[in-house]
Design goal:
Blueprint: E1 2-5, E2 17-21, E3 24-28, H1 37-41, E4 56-58, H2 64-67, H3 70-75, E5 82-84, H4 86-117, H5 128-135, E6 138-140, E7 147-150, E8 153-159, E9 167-175, E10 178-184, E11 207-211, H6 222-239, E12 243-246, H7 252-262, E13 273-277, H8 279-290, H9 297-303, E14 315-317, H10 321-327, E15 334-338, H11 348-355, E16 362-365, H12 374-379, E17 384-387, E18 390-393, E19 397-400, H13 410-418, E20 426-429, H14 433-447, E21 459-461
Parallel strand pairs: 3-4, 4-5, 5-6, 10-11, 11-20, 12-15, 12-16, 13-14, 13-15, 16-19
Antiparallel strand pairs: 1-2, 1-21, 2-3, 7-8, 8-9, 9-10, 17-18
Helix pairs in contact: 4-5, 4-8
Amino acid sequence: MELTLCGAAGEVTGSCHHLRVGGHQVLLDCGLYQGSREDELRNAVGFPFDPRAIDAVLLSHAHLDHCGRLPMLVRGGFRGPILSHPASLDLVRILLRDAAHLQQADNERENRRRARRGEQPRKPLFELADVERVFDRLQPVEFGQATGVVPGIDLTLHRAGHILGAASLALDLAEGGRRRRLVYSGDIGPDGSGLLPDPEPPGSADLVLMESTYGDRNHRSRQATLDEIEEVLDLAWQAGGNLLVPSFAIGRAQELMALFAANFERWRLDRWQIFLDSPMAIEATRVHDRHFELFSDAARKLVGQRELHALLPNLHRTQRPEQSMKINAVKRGALVIAGSGMCSGGRILHHLRHNLWRRECHVMIIGYQSAGTLGRKLVDGSQFVRIYGEDIRVAATVHTIGGLSAHAGQDDLLAWYQAIAGRPPVHLVHGEERGREGLATCLRERLGVEAGLPGYGDRLAL
């Protein structure tokens, strides 16, 4: 039994871990590298294993850094099942179709530039036909339901609280009379997020592969976060401009709508025109409505018999491009929720291009920003950013709201691990060095546990 790290080792994207048991090969996630242009170019390098030899993929959740290379895997010859929670599979269908369209559009732009330079055209990483072949392989698994994957590997999903359908994977392994239990955390959500129930850690493990995105720090308390959002809304209104909210279309956008509904009067949200400017977020919200049973008790009470978008009477859902473009004619009072969450693409780029140079504009960052992304540059205080080949001066005020992250902070991560009996060996992944070294220090000083910090290509014997 052996686990090889093929992504998200010392970084937060490209999640992919290769498990060998009894002659069978299984992947835990198969995600895209995201961030800088150099990071994204790594997606074209190929896999360090033969896709044809993979028997199954076990998917923790539907974010592109965990599922985005599935079409490339299928293109390479993978023909096994892809197992995940039904809500995750519904979201995967939305994400991968959108990613294929973006791949095609980006590739067409790049090939026009190549043609002008006299260079050979390139092919996209994957196409819609590859995505459709992924959909043929999707197999739903419910939380708490032990499922045989291949001989010697049984899978049980546990709620991870990160986004709708997100799961931690408990894998019961058997080979040559030996039995081991591997727990892969996936991405762990914070306690008390609002829309989803708290994470439910597996009860036991022989080895834990654990995320560490925010392993070096805690988020602000829920109440302090609500107070901070109220302050940002007031400051943005007083400034007389627009408020831009880059948001992941899946998870963050829906969480934000529920939060706005719960605090509608207190935050005087009726004074704003609120735009959900993301076709993917609009479609993902419909998926959330279909999986209402996965909401927390408080969220189910808030929503009642309504749909999520109907909680806000002044919400405009802008599906078509021409609707989105009209938003840029609004110079005051537009609260725009648009993707992508790291400002690495999507409609938020157009709104930033039209507003960042205005002193009256405010930007509210509500999620993790990977190194090299435009969002990280805004958080780090860059005075100029480049959008669609144009240098834009950053005169807008940028606010970072850490308490809305879909990732658990240090104390919540520690509590999740402590809930697993016996303090099993743990290796930290899905974190930049600052995050996972901070969590490793915390585990050592508080619990006396020495955490492993594996790198790309490292092999862990089970």
